[in-house]
Amino acid sequence: MALAKELENLRNFQCSEGKCVLSVYLNTDRANQNQRKGEWKIRLKNGLKRLEEYLIASGDQKQLKVYKKLRRKVEKEIKGNQSQLMKSVVIFASEEQDLWSVHYLQLPVETNFHWENAPVLDQLTKLQQDFPKSAIIMPNRDVIKIIDIDLGEIKGTNIYQFDPESENWRLKEGTASSDRMASSANHVDDYQHRLDENLNRFYKKIASNIEQMYRDRKWQSVYLVGEPEKVKILQGQLRVKIDRSVNKNLKNSDSFKVLEQVFQ
């Protein structure tokens, strides 16, 4: 589900009786000097423990029972996905309507834990305002990778492979596209030379596709990542505003590493 739509659904969520929603904002940014030794684990444990102590003091056994179940689920989710942790994780959980909304973000949040009658959305709403829908476009010789981002979260990736026979760009998806990216580096020198000499013309053909995606996906920010020459050539062909260029060859980096470079 698109994050904007999910936020709308979360805003409309309300407990039928009392408090029933656990909202978790956890900063896991290793770039933060206070996080380099995994201090987020202590903050997670202490934050959830404080909420439990609050419920014990309230004497509401029904809410306490529900909370303990949700707490275990949240702890299992985060600890079981430590390899996916980027700069933050945001979770909304409730037994009502089986609410379970998890987001691993490349944007930092302030660590906070809430037990309320509705999801606490202040930080997520602010992030959506500050970091709207955007795209990272990575031009290479015969491959262009486009990462679709919403609120610092990867929503999808498209890879276009240049077909030398038709001189058109073909969309590849899934694992096959990644494999093709790796194999493209093995093309013979004369083919690479031909591509280099005709990049302006070949990039012009893909520019219209990117401009259409810009309109359809309602990107509000666009970033270019790649070798300076290729970034400059593609930017010259695009009729969209480029918010920032990162002049680094990251074609062999995974998408999460690319996000780190763009949003650092």
Automatic annotation (TrEMBL):
Superkingdom assignment: Bacteria
One Pfam family hit: baeRF_family5
Name of the protein in question: Protein required for attachment to host cells
Species the sequence originates in: Evansella vedderi
